[in-house]
């Protein structure tokens, strides 16, 4: 096993995941609006989506599967509309609260609502299928970390899961601290607007790409 290559991979994944994006914005907003349990389920959903995309990327790398760029753009476009819908809902909810309203603990969620956190996380994670292209271009740089292709894919995937969940759970923990709760409404608004801007950017990019095909 190439330890130095493995450490470079772990650092690269850490920097990639910790950088704010649609998943981080969703986790932050969910943690503040619905509590840590719902946020953890959402994080598990986004992680589940990453695993699906990793498996698809592995099939592409082995030549077992080929994916149309046009199909990826269409899926991405639909996914961005879904993210925009979620962000508008979250923004509307955040703006509805009066600034002077005392902070209350999130109400317990029914089982169905909790399960929807897992589904929402998966849909947001899978809504950017261009991550497949990222994995296809990213994994080959580290595929020689072990002597076996399957072993390398398995190891890289497990490390991705551990780093991904660790960072997302850290965000959830930070959002439940007193300082974050003090500025709960402002953080919710910022994370919702960030999510909306990312979605609009994705809609513009995917839409223009499809129109130019």
What does this structure look like?
By secondary structure, the chain is an all-alpha fold. It has one domain (3-211). The protein has 9 helices and no strands. Helix 1 (3-18) runs parallel beside helix 7. It is globular and about 55 Å long. The protein starts with a helix and ends with a helix. Residues 100-114 have low confidence and may be disordered.
The secondary-structure class comes to: mainly alpha
DSSP strand tally: 0
Please, what is the average pLDDT? 78
Specify the overall morphology. globular
- Poorly predicted regions are 100-114
Q: Counting H and I runs of at least 4 residues, what is the number of helices? A: 9
Based on the structure, what is the oligomeric state of the protein chains?
single chain
Strand content: under 5%
List SSEs in N-to-C order: HHHHHHHHH
Q: What's the number of structural domains?
A: 1
Question: C-alpha Rg, in Å?
Answer: 18 Å
What summary fits the major beta sheet? none
Distance between the amino and carboxyl termini: 44 Å
Residues in helix, %: over 70%
InterPro entries: LeuE-type
Protein name: Efflux protein, LysE family
Keywords: Cell membrane, Membrane, Transmembrane, Transmembrane helix
Subcellular location: Cell membrane
